[in-house]
Structure formats: structure tokens, C-alpha cells
Design a protein that fits this description.
By secondary structure, this protein is of the alpha/beta class. It is 37% helix and 19% strand. The protein has seven helices and five strands; from the N terminus they run βαβαβααβαβαα. It has a five-stranded parallel β-sheet, with helices on both faces. The termini are close together. The model has no long low-confidence stretch (mean pLDDT 98). The protein binds flavin mononucleotide.
Length: 177
């Protein structure tokens, strides 16, 4: 499979990207092709809601979303990687998702496989449900096929993350696709 991994943390070597690297290692070991896109470092702007695209046309804004669009429309799988910010995804990732708007029809027609990898500081059970249910609703709406979620609680720093069971979980998710 051709897999696009969308990383969205301001910390290049941070917790969520540490988990993503485990996933990527597992996926590459079994022969998948992985393209990493560090969307936190790309030129991406929020959706203007101008409706010029009609959900199926060129976007009025010319920025790096074009590169993400091209990658996703030729991929078999997308992986959403994010730190947990106030119980949701990072703004960097949310911008990418909002900008699906101009190619919603084309993207949903692809029935992409997807996964979610998230890192949060807290360990309690009330940290992840909001992000995971948002992701699951997005999957239903966009006709994505969810392949799994790595919900990294207790992953507040790269050090904590490396000592957590979520490292193996992320690796296994990549290997077992
Ligand atoms: C703006 C902001 C909001 C955060 N909100 C939460 C939160 O709601 N719950 C939580 O457990 N951790 C929260 N954190 C902590 C991060 O999720 C955590 O440190 C994570 O490891 C960061 O991942 P990264 O290194 O990939 O950026 C927040 C951190 C920041 C900077």
C-alpha cells in the first residue's frame, strides 16, 4: 500500500511523531511505501468558507494543500498524527482536514484506509474519547475505512512516550495492516 502519514506537531522530535515513527517502521518492514508529510511545517491556511469550490472544485487558496491533496488522492491509506490539544487534534491538523472541503467528493470516493495516532500528557480515561469520536465520525462521513487508533495517554514527552506501551501498539499497527 501507499501510505501518507500526516504529522501535525510543532515538535518535530515530539511524542506524536515518536509514535508515528514506530508505525512507519512497522509498515515499511512489511513492504508498504510510506510518505511522511510534516503539515506543521507546511504553508497551510484555514478554510475561508468562501464556497467557491462547491466541495468539488479548485480551492481559491494556493498553498501547500495542493501537495497534500495530490498525495492523498493517489494513496491507499492516510494516517492522522496529532498531539492532543484541549481534548482535540492540533490546529495544524484541523486546517488540513477543513481544507478537504474543496476535494471532499474526490477524497471520499477513494474509500481510503485511515488510522489515528495521538499523544496526550494525561493518563485518565477522559482524555481521548472526544478526539477518537471526532475521528470516527470523520471516517463515516468521508467513507474512510478505519484501520486502528493509537491513543497515547501518558505520552507527555518523548521520554515518557518511549517508555509507554503505545510504542509497540504503533509498531504493531504498521506491521499488521
Ligand atoms: C496547547 C496545548 C494543549 C494541550 N492539551 C492537552 C490536553 O487537553 N490533554 C492532555 O493530556 N495533554 C494536553 N497537552 C499536552 C500534549 O498533548 C502533550 O505534551 C503531547 O505529548 C505533545 O505531543 P507532541 O510532542 O507530539 O507535540 C497540551 C499541550 C499543549 C501545548
Amino acid at each position: 500500500m501507499r501510505i501518507v502519514v500526516l504529522e501535525s506537531s510543532p515538535h518535530k522530535q515530539g511524542s506524536s511523531n515518536t509514535l508515528a515513527r514506530q508505525f512507519i517502521q512497522g509498515a515499511r518492514e512489511v513492504g508498504h511505501t510510506v510518505e511522511e508529510m510534516d503539515v506543521a511545517r507546511m504553508d497551510i491556511h484555514p478554510c475561508l468558507g468562501c464556497e467557491r469550490c462547491g466541495m468539488d472544485g479548485p480551492c481559491a487558496q494556493k498553498d501547500d494543500v495542493q501537495k497534500i491533496r495530490d498525495a492523498l488522492l493517489s494513496a491507499d491509506m492516510a494516517v492522522f498524527v496529532t498531539p492532543v490539544y484541549y481534548f482535540g487534534m492540533s490546529a495544524q491538523l484541523k486546517m488540513v482536514i477543513d481544507r478537504f472541503y474543496s476535494y471532499t467528493m474526490k477524497l471520499s470516493a477513494r474509500h481510503l484506509k485511515t488510522a489515528l495516532i495521538a499523544a496526550a500528557w494525561d493518563t485518565d480515561s477522559d482524555v481521548m474519547p472526544y478526539l477518537s469520536s471526532h475521528y470516527q465520525k470523520l471516517c463515516r462521513y468521508m467513507h474512510f475505512q478505519d484501520c486502528g487508533m493509537v491513543l497515547g495517554t501518558g505520552c507527555g514527552t518523548p521520554g515518557q512516550t518511549k517508555n509507554s506501551p503505545h510504542m509497540r501498539e504503533a509498531y504493531q499497527l504498521g506491521r499488521n495492516l
